[in-house]
């Protein structure tokens, strides 16, 4: 091999690419990791880590206020919160990530990678060749809505929202998805006057309706003005900041955060040379192999399958295993197949209250033709009462009556994120409700809600 010859080339050095590359390197394959920005990717510097660092102090203060006798202050120290956030991003310095990659035996190549031929990747004029496979892990980019004037008006995306170093006096957030609600609450608790604009009756439309309703209550309790059933049409600069106007909305803020979704980052990759469309997802099977090609793989947001960091890392591990072992059509649930992408994807929305869900919603389960039974309960057990005065939360269990197994679970309430992995294990394992009855929850914990759900089911 020459210096530009590898067994595997991974394009994209975020968590997904790092996992795929680490897997192939651990399997003895010489692996190059190509990244044009910071190693560690969106999650490390502009998404998962900084956003949760911004949210956690506000949650801690709110939790303390719910337990009488705990001395608390009136407000957050915004400067300290932002400084702690900077620590989690390593001040946007990726040298630590580079050191990890090199220590894992990877060759880090800086620059934009483009597919220029079978197993060939051009990086700024340097052509790398892979004997085994090329893996695309380039993630996703912001989806820009068609708003009149947006191209001419400076505005925030999720990157600016998670990396800003000053609290804006006011902030308008467009979009009621995960980024929109999390950043609306984070900046409101840091002292900004926040307006959240959503197109439907409630935020988080992809989740069970009660989840969005509880988050809506939580946002309003924090002083967020929520404008529902609005259709934004235009953006303009006015005295005092940026104006967002349209059907049912006319608001002004110092900054505008556009949080209307993301799309696969396939532009500039050369995918057109192989019959695919730039800007659209790469179709893959459960091993991550791209349709019609035996040497090209992809994992993470770029595939459009389950655009979440943890699912992308899971898919990357399957890709790495498939490449190392040569697996083509592995059995479902094997290490070389990302089977869970279809039925058991967990997700947490880190607002207060939190939302934690896995599997299908009741509506999606019915659309799939399942014989569905839904069990709904308030989270009202000894553990929740001890956890916080006035604890308010809800739980839903979706059961396939033909198999008597769980196919979906959603929790909404303070600190429910830690409950969801039990539901994920149950769904992945195909655990019946009859067997789940024997998984006795510890007392007094919020997990006792599992017992109450099963009792309500009729066990």
UniProtKB/TrEMBL annotation:
Disulfide pairings: 43-48
Residues annotated for FAD binding in this entry: 52, 113, 138-140, 301
Free-text cofactor note: Binds 1 FAD per subunit.
A biological process from GO: 2-oxoglutarate metabolic process
SUPFAM superfamilies (alphabetical): FAD/NAD(P)-binding domain (SSF51905), FAD/NAD-linked reductases, dimerisation (C-terminal) domain (SSF55424)
Cofactor(s) listed: FAD
FAD/NAD(P)-binding domain: residues covered: 6-311
Record family assignment: Belongs to the class-I pyridine nucleotide-disulfide oxidoreductase family.
Protein name (Swiss-Prot/TrEMBL): Dihydrolipoamide dehydrogenase
UniProt gene name: pdhD
């Amino acid at each position: 091999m020459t210096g530009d010859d590898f067994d595997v080339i991974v394009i994209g050095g975020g968590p997904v690419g790092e996992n795929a590359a680490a897997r192939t390197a651990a399997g003895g394959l010489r692996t190059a990791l190509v990244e044009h920005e910071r190693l560690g990717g969106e999650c490390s510097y502009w998404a998962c880590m900084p956003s949760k660092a911004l949210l956690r102090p506000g949650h801690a203060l709110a939790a303390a206020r719910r337990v009488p006798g705990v001395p608390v202050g009136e407000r957050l120290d915004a400067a300290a919160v932002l400084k702690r956030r900077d620590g989690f991003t390593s001040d946007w310095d990726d040298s630590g990530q580079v050191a990890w990659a090199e220590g894992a035996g990877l060759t880090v190549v800086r620059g934009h990678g483009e597919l220029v031929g079978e197993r060939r990747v051009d990086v700024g004029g340097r052509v790398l060749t892979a004997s085994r496979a090329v893996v695309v892990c380039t993630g996703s980019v912001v989806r820009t809505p068609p708003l009149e004037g947006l191209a001419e008006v400076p505005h925030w995306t999720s990157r600016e929202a998670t990396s800003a170093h000053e609290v804006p006096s006011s902030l308008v957030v467009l979009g009621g998805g995960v980024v929109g609600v999390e950043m609306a609450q984070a900046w409101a608790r840091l002292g900004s006057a926040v307006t959240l604009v959503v197109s439907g009756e409630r935020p988080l439309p992809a989740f069970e309706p009660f989840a969005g309703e509880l988050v809506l209550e939580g946002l309003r309790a924090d002083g967020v003005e929520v404008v529902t059933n609005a259709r934004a049409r235009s953006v303009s600069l006015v005295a005092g900041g940026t104006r967002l106007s349209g059907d049912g909305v006319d608001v002004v803020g110092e900054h505008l955060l556009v949080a209307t979704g993301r799309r696969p980052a396939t532009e500039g990759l050369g995918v057109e040379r192989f019959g695919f469309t730039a800007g659209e997802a790469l179709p893959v099977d459960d091993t991550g192999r791209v349709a019609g090609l035996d040497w090209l793989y992809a994992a993470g947001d770029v595939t459009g399958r389950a655009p979440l960091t943890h699912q992308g890392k899971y898919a990357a591990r399957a890709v790495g295993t498939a490449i190392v072992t040569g697996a083509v059509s592995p059995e479902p649930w094997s290490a070389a197949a990302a089977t869970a992408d279809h039925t058991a994807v967990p997700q947490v929305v880190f607002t207060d209250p939190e939302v934690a869900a896995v599997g299908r919603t009741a509506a999606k389960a019915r659309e799939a033709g399942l014989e569905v039974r839904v069990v709904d309960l308030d989270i009202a057990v000894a553990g929740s009462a001890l956890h916080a005065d006035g604890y308010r939360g809800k739980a839903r269990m979706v059961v396939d009556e033909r198999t008597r197994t769980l196919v979906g679970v959603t929790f909404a309430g303070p600190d429910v994120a830690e409950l969801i992995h039990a539901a994920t294990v149950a769904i992945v394992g195909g655990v019946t409700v009859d067997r789940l009855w024997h998984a006795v929850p510890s007392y007094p914990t919020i997990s006792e809600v599992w017992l109450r759900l099963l009792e309500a089911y009729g066990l």
